[in-house]
Specification:
The protein has 167 residues and is of the alpha+beta class. Helices cover 31% and strands 26% of the residues. The chain is built from one helix and eight strands. The protein has a four-stranded antiparallel sheet, with helices on one face. It has a four-stranded antiparallel sheet with strand order 4-6-7-8, with helices on one face. β1 and β2 (90-95) form a beta hairpin. The longest helix is centred in the first third of the chain and has 52 residues, at 24-75. The radius of gyration is 33 Å and the shape is rod-shaped.
């Protein structure tokens, strides 16, 4: 058997170094893609946030009206839902005969505006109906609005029914 002599192979320049990391071109392309995606996504995200703020305030007012009506029925007394204008606006739910010193609930919202079509107070009697001879005795509309998110209406009938109105 013949012995084969091994000759050491010299490394070619650059063979010993493996490429690690990214090239400048790869980084620039990645950053460009991220910027394009952010440019498309941010306006949609802002619109979604405005709509969510409006829905949150709308649902808060809706729950306040339902609370006022159910408290009137439960307590067998007149209970008022009062809109306090301002920035930010707020509402109060309180027993009408006792005055507004000790409200059942007071909430402040982030909305720009809340308006009640006929005054600022809705009073529910012991049966959950609207008290006659008040601003809202024949029914009224409460509007919750935001500058950037539109507005939503809440319909209150003369019988005290609270429903979602058109926007």
């Amino acid at each position: 058997m013949k012995r084969v002599k091994r000759v050491p192979v010299r490394p070619v320049a650059g063979d010993g170094m493996r490429q690690r990391g990214f090239t400048l071109i790869e980084l620039l392309v990645t950053i460009a893609v991220i910027v394009i995606m952010a440019t498309i996504a941010i306006p949609g995200f802002q619109s979604m946030m405005a709509t969510n703020r409006l829905n949150s305030d709308y649902n808060e007012v809706l729950s306040g009206l339902h609370l006022a009506r159910s408290e009137a029925i439960k307590r067998r007394e007149e209970v008022s839902f009062e809109v306090v204008a301002g920035s930010p606006w707020k509402y109060r739910v309180y027993v009408t005969d006792e005055g507004s010193d000790d409200p059942i609930r007071t909430r402040t919202a982030s909305g720009d505006e809340i308006t009640l079509s006929d005054g600022s107070t809705v009073e529910f009697d012991r049966l959950g109906r609207i008290v006659e001879s008040t601003d809202c005795d024949g029914g009224c509309t409460l509007t919750v609005s935001h500058d950037d998110g539109g507005s939503k209406n809440i319909q209150i009938s003369g019988f005290g029914r609270i429903g979602r109105g058109g926007s």
